[in-house]
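hey team, just a heads up i'm posting the complex here instead of the shared drive bc the drive is being weird again. everything in one block, sequence lines first with there labels, then the predicted structure for the whole assembly after. its four chains so it's a bit long, scroll down
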Amino acid sequence: MSKYQELKERVLKANKDLVKAGLVILTWGNASEIDRNLGVVAIKPSGVSYDEMKVEDVVVTDLEGRVIEGKLNPSSDLLSHLALYKAFPEIGGVVHTHSTYATASAQAGKDIPCYGTTHADTFYGAIPVTRALTKEEVEKDYELNSGLVIVEHFKNNNLDVMACPAALIRNHAPFTWGKDVFKAVENSIILEEVAKMTALTLRFNKDAEPAPQYLQDKHYFRKHGANAYYGQKKINR
Amino acid sequence: MSKYQELKERVLKANKDLVKAGLVILTWGNASEIDRNLGVVAIKPSGVSYDEMKVEDVVVTDLEGRVIEGKLNPSSDLLSHLALYKAFPEIGGVVHTHSTYATASAQAGKDIPCYGTTHADTFYGAIPVTRALTKEEVEKDYELNSGLVIVEHFKNNNLDVMACPAALIRNHAPFTWGKDVFKAVENSIILEEVAKMTALTLRFNKDAEPAPQYLQDKHYFRKHGANAYYGQKKINR
Amino acid sequence: MSKYQELKERVLKANKDLVKAGLVILTWGNASEIDRNLGVVAIKPSGVSYDEMKVEDVVVTDLEGRVIEGKLNPSSDLLSHLALYKAFPEIGGVVHTHSTYATASAQAGKDIPCYGTTHADTFYGAIPVTRALTKEEVEKDYELNSGLVIVEHFKNNNLDVMACPAALIRNHAPFTWGKDVFKAVENSIILEEVAKMTALTLRFNKDAEPAPQYLQDKHYFRKHGANAYYGQKKINR
Amino acid sequence: MSKYQELKERVLKANKDLVKAGLVILTWGNASEIDRNLGVVAIKPSGVSYDEMKVEDVVVTDLEGRVIEGKLNPSSDLLSHLALYKAFPEIGGVVHTHSTYATASAQAGKDIPCYGTTHADTFYGAIPVTRALTKEEVEKDYELNSGLVIVEHFKNNNLDVMACPAALIRNHAPFTWGKDVFKAVENSIILEEVAKMTALTLRFNKDAEPAPQYLQDKHYFRKHGANAYYGQKKINR
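-- predicted structure starts here --
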């Protein structure tokens, strides 16, 4: 049995979870996870039907994108994933979808402001949309540059990649990430719900204001960091 | 067997009903019920997956929030529920969700006016949005204050808590209640549908006017109070 | 066995079809069918859960609303149905729902104009919204008057009740009808889809114009009347 | 067994796939496929319930619309399909639906601009809406003219029918096509999703601009033509 077996099974499940959550139709979207000890990433194969996808179809590559295990082409977005793994050592899983509301926001070229606690529970501050890629960046090394434009945005704006585990690539679609691939999937689910609520908030009140910063702080930090008290952290089950 | 067994089973079912009704994703939302004779409240545990939740995971507390039965942390929103039970002796069940349309309305900071009979059948008058909590109220005793800001709104505006069994906490999300936990769940379902209809009403006609008061009266009172004639109240089955 | 057995079975199925089609939640909505030879109407009981509703719960009344068979109260909207049956001898089934988009249009006080062939295939011309009921009409004989205000609208505007088998009661919700109860259910399904398309049409183009009259004529009359050629009418199967 | 058996089975499955994908309700919509060697087209029968539709109900006609096999009337839209097959030798399957968002865009009389990569992956450039049919074109040979107005639009605007496998007939609804009937179904699914994203993009930003042409080129050509590298084309599985 492959030493990457468990990694591949996790990645297969995470990809199928995206379909179950209604975030992916046809072959759109891909999830990957990194094993930093082994120096490998497992990712969805390109253009394969989710129904037929089996664990042996998951592709394992090194951090330069060379296939180590698997007979199929990896997702065409592999190099975007690798750019994120290299820039951000904290992250263990990456997800890319074309989920409807988040993609519409990316197409609109609009950040998703924090209008309430649903957003603040997971994302600290606005979820950013990147600048457009240049013609040169699109024509050469497009997928790599799609990852790098996210990295650039977070570095230039001093954003904490774990406190805002999502970004929208302008005119394209969202990426999310997390400590592992299942957390990245969860963040995709939350991003889509938050994007939908944002559209509706603006329909109820086109001049809606972001939630007060102290309320954003409260919700984010009751779930994250040293003083978190949400969930079952302090109790053995 | 625990003397709270039936109470816990009801609360478990009510929490799972929220997921079935599409009002709750992930671990968002919580339902509780009070037994005023025994002086206890049963509530969902914090951050536990709905799929895995079992009756023994339901937490029983006293009215000060001290755990009486159960090994898990109660919902982090417990103190909001308790504030409502203490202020309003008529209510027997409380539900909190982040259902999409109602939450968007809370984020927009807008009351939900009564545009028609769907609303008037359950809610007498506009469904109110509370004031924002202050920085002090958020930083200290946040969950308690989230309940108290609802109580304040109803008292200051002389609203009848049973005639309008829902409120939106500004920049946060809705709470509903009822004579028992299942009625509170039903009111959450109706609130979400009414919030959706409100968004669509405004899309069809941004200058839409509330329904005439006499129509609101007719629909509310044909289902509630001494002269109600909807349903099977007068017939033995 | 009751001589109304088949009628009651049809009405039971039609009511459950409304739930399956997503037009009805909780106990909202009701379907009825008339047997003009027997001079009776079968209708849903009031306020009974659709899951538990059995054929013996369906209520049979005469045209004055007196219960002939059944132990439960008939739908509180019975008198609206009877007003339609009495005024329009062509109709055999009536359905009332609070389906989301059609109800929103009723709340907005807006007719649904014919923007395209989806509408014209079933509804000839705009689907009308009635005037508001007066205070007197609401306070006395409300359900009867809810039917009569539809009748008034069709008579005053010389509308053909079979060519436009739907109306919206202002600030309330839609009624549909048809030659039998299943056709009335189908018309409710189509009404809701057309109302949704109307909302979206106006979102794409707030100045959208109705479809040309000759296109409306073509689509309506290829499915209705002596020259219809849609479907399998000319072929024995 | 009929020599058209496989063709008919494919067409039956494609029609049922439209229902599964949520693009078709009641009997709305139809899919066909051509066998150019045999000179025949198989198409859905007119007005038959999808649940009851069996392979022997599929109708086989020649390119003039004369029934060769089958006891039922072919879809009333048959002549629209045939006009497309005759004008465009590249296409092997045609689908017509009244899917909600695409139909709303047709009713609004609005092209669907390319706002992002989801669109560009399948459709090169805006998805066009045709001119309105004239009174004469509607009253005589309506279904034929519905096909011809699409052909006219593509010829007059020098559009490549395989690079933009969809069109909206003004005040009516969409047609899509592809190398075979399943590709035509897939294009209907993508069209509906793109139309929905377009509505939402405009809600987030009413002044949204189309994606840069170089980004549209990149996405379209990484999936189509000689230099495509998406999917598993270069790998034997």
